[in-house]
## 1
Amino acid sequence: MNSPAKKNLADKKQSLPHRIRDQIRYEILTGTLPAGTPLKQDLLAARFQASRIPVREALRQLETEGLVAYHLNRGAVVMKMDIAQICELLDIRIALECYAVRIAVPNMAQADFEEMESILAAYDAADSVEEWADLNRRFHMALCLPANNQRLRRLIEEYGLNTDRYTHEMMSKATGKRKPQQDHYAIVEACRQHNAQLAASLLEAHILETRKNLVAMQRMAENAR
């Protein structure tokens, strides 16, 4: 039988790769580690005061999330996606988030509406793209959390966060925040009316608009060359 001391030591060893993963993920998603940045295991091990084993495990987990890629003779680097790959992830987001909203709306309470409206109020007051991106992620998660499905939540976090780091800066510069905010408020109103189908339809249109604009921006950039 394991002693409490041995169990605590095992828990600490098990959680170390997760802590390293979470910190690197945060830095990738916030742009502190831009696409193409090499992730040297020895440097990361020294930084986190750990061996290379938990660092290697953390990087492998980030690879499964699409945030890190391994290149021959270069090792791990922060992954860069092209528009086609981003569009594929946006399609997955539509499937996941719209399903989540359909089952979330019947569970929504006053506290959920107040949380979403608080996030949107902060979004209205924010004046930087970085703040808009963070608040946008928070809103989409708050919208889906009442589905009360932890596995679904983790999938939405993975695909939502992954696409946001590529799309939000481009889209914010192109469209500003007024139109996305109008969409957000309309979705919340549909939720308040307990109209799950309308909320899901509005959310699908919202994400599809992002997809169409990204493709259009790429097309215009290519034509301008």
Note: Residues 1-13 have pLDDT under 50 and may be disordered.
## 2
Amino acid sequence: MSWITTLKNEMDITGNLEKDVESFYKHFNALPLFLHSVDVAEECRNLANLFHTNEKNAHITGYLHDISSVIPKENIMEAVLDLNIAVLPEETQFPYLLYQKLSAALAQELFQIDNKEVLSALECHTTLKKKCKKQDLILFVADKIKWGKIGNPPYIAAIHMEWQKSLEHAAYCYITYVWERRNQYQVIHPWLIEAYYDLKEKLEISFSSENDTK
């Protein structure tokens, strides 16, 4: 029996998303993840209201964005195979990067989510991607603000300043933070690199900085 089939048999999905997600996390004894998801969902709703987009969809993405995080590291590749997820070389090297795709696939397979905007946002909530849409940006930024750790993230003041300009500025602020520290990471996902240059071009920021060398 496949991993996803076993999970489906264990879960009682009612269609009430908030209750189903809470039950899902309780099933895995993952209350901190649930509380983080609630925080992100509320931040998504706030940003959706601020930037005039669908609050319900934004709220859903917040609730579902980390559902794959309950999968043990040793079971990630099994889940990927069960859910027919395409894997990039960088994701094979550092499987943690697969969690965003797994969340989108689980949302579709287990929670019966078929909204393309929601699934797109879930799929890139860790790295973002080029040609991102507003819903992608909302979840990406909300997840970075409500980072699920003690204290405030070191980039929070800068993000709060930048979102007064646009969601794109806020997202670029965080990605720049990562990019400037890229040598500290085992792997930089190609989607993040593409998002970095895509946003840089959209925001008409000069390419002359020496930090732009790939």
Note: The chain has twelve helices and no strands.
